[in-house]
Design goal:
This protein starts with a strand and ends with a helix. It contains five helices and five strands, in the order E-H-E-H-E-H-E-E-H-H. By secondary structure, it is α+β, with helices and mostly antiparallel strands.
């Protein structure tokens, strides 16, 4: 995959602990493949070399990552929020799987920032909220105008009497 919108660094096993099972790893890869993303397990040294080659060496301190490291590589034209949600949800269900950080649009996100991104509402929900927010003032204006028209009609009918 030559270009990626998002790269997520994860730990699937800590030193001295039982790691993610093969079945769970396969489940994760299947979900990611459905989104056009990949999950790659690699040695930290190789990840460091790859990060340096794409000029992200200064952003990512691979040496600080704990345990065995895997990398989620998102597609260039993919939905980064949906990808982060899937990785976050998988990590919630599988406590041994931890997000260490991510690169999104050439900026490094620590694990906390990544989790905040994953908690954002989906694109459809945000569009729906925006539509509702634009409709509210118009609806309020219509209610005011209708109330004023009713008051004017009542006033006019009282004048005729």
């Amino acid at each position: 995959m030559p270009e990626a919108e998002m790269v997520v660094f994860t730990s699937y096993s800590r030193t001295g602990e039982k790691g993610l099972s093969v079945a769970k790893m396969r489940e994760l890869k299947k979900v990611l493949r459905g989104m056009g993303a990949e999950y790659v397990v690699a040695k930290k040294n190789l990840i460091r070399i790859a990060a340096e080659q794409v000029h992200f060496g200064e952003l990512v301190d691979v040496g600080s990552f704990d345990g065995s490291v895997g990398v989620v590589v998102g597609p260039k034209e993919g939905d980064s929020v949906a990808l982060s949600k899937n990785v976050y949800d998988f990590a919630k269900v599988n406590p041994v799987f931890k997000v260490l950080g991510a690169i999104l649009e050439k900026k490094y996100l620590n694990a906390d920032s990544f989790n905040e991104l994953a908690k954002l509402p989906s694109r459809e929900i945000m569009l729906g909220r925006m539509l509702g927010m634009t409709q509210y003032p118009l609806t309020g204006l219509m209610n005011v105008l209708q109330g004023n028209i009713r008051n004017l009609l009542v006033l006019l009918s009282n004048l005729k009497k």
